[in-house]
Inverse folding.
């Protein structure tokens, strides 16, 4: 019976470990982009990993360790790892970016209290002593703050990433509910063995449901841009360098969009001609075609530039209000999507000299999907 209980819990352990490493994989997959808010993926992975290994040690001590000395050591190790899980999440959000939505001083204080909880858990005479329950209360307090942080992420986010955070929050709540059952069993509250087994299986089943929910949250997790990145978009131009003409444009500034005059095609041509002209001048100054300019400061705004992959002679220009790292990644994503979707047309672009704006007008749908 004990072996069956452990095997059932081991299923949750395996899923939890795989889930943690998938969070790490998702982070390192786009680490080079330097989107600092993506550290949240490492935070979530650490939170699950320490929680799983902590409970695993407690189960090993409870079911398989006969020697009182080693049983006590493994028990304390398990509780320490479980207590450390909120800290493992929070140390990766102690950044200026996350400091815009949460009070970092409060997090530092809670981390300190949580650290004391680990110390109390180690020195407590037993799991029934008052000092141990004080330790648990500190961890619960920090756990509530973790849930509060997840709620803030949901409120501050929009689109697809908001749905992912919501799923993770639901999965976290479910998993923490399972921990209540685990604590009750671990502390030996129930004298009736049959009742204890029922509580055990219910707890592990709830944990599995929580992990499965979190799996859906991490699958296809989008890059986590700055919270205000959409508000800093002004205008996107995709320009044919051979003809100096804009083949696609998208105005993101809704206020400006209402004020656009009827000769907007003329404005697009002026902008596209000017951008290509700057690129040519840069090539003349450096004496090489390989030296490209990727950012232009213009009064209170910036122009980000990306260049088409060979053999496409295209410039992607994004006018923005504030220079954010995420907007460079957004422009690179636009380039990838545009060249993938219109690849065959771009190979013979010169055959479609007229109405190129109409030809690529359907790209609006893809741009809108990238902004969700």
């Amino acid at each position: 019976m004990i072996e069956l209980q452990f095997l059932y819990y081991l299923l949750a352990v395996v899923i939890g470990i795989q889930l943690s490493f998938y969070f790490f994989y998702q982070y390192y997959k786009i680490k080079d982009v330097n989107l600092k808010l993506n550290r949240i993926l490492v935070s979530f992975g650490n939170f699950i990993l320490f929680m799983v290994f902590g409970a695993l040690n407690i189960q090993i001590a409870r079911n398989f360790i006969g020697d009182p000395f080693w049983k006590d050591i493994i028990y304390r190790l398990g509780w320490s790892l479980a207590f450390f899980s909120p800290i493992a999440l929070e140390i990766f959000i102690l950044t200026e970016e996350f400091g815009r939505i949460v009070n970092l001083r409060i997090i530092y204080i809670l981390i300190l209290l949580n650290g004391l909880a680990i110390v109390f858990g180690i020195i407590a005479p037993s799991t029934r002593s008052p000092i141990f329950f004080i330790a648990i209360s500190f961890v619960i307090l920090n756990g509530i703050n973790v849930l509060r942080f997840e709620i803030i992420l949901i409120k501050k986010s929009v689109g697809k990433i908001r749905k992912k955070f919501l799923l993770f929050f639901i999965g976290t709540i479910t998993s923490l509910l399972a921990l209540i059952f685990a604590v009750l069993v671990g502390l030996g509250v129930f004298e009736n063995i049959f009742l204890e087994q029922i509580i055990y299986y219910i707890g592990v089943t709830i944990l599995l449901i929580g992990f499965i929910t979190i799996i859906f949250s991490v699958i296809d997790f989008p890059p986590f841009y700055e919270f205000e990145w959409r508000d800093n978009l002004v205008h996107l131009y995709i320009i044919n360098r051979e003809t100096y003409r804009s083949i696609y444009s998208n105005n993101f500034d809704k206020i400006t969009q209402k004020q656009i005059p009827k000769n907007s095609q003329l404005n697009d041509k002026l902008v596209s001609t000017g951008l290509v002209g700057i690129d040519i001048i840069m090539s003349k100054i450096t004496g090489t075609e390989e030296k490209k300019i990727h950012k232009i400061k213009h009064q209170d705004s910036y122009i980000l530039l990306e260049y088409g992959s060979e053999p496409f002679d295209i410039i992607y220009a994004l006018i923005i209000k504030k220079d954010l790292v995420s907007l460079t990644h957004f422009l690179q994503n636009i380039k990838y999507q545009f060249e993938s979707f219109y690849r065959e047309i771009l190979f013979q672009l010169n055959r479609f000299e007229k109405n190129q704006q109409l030809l690529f007008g359907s790209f609006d749908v893809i741009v809108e999907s990238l902004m969700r």
Strands lie at 233-240, 245-251, 295-298, 301-307, 314-320. The chain has two domains: 2-218, 229-370.
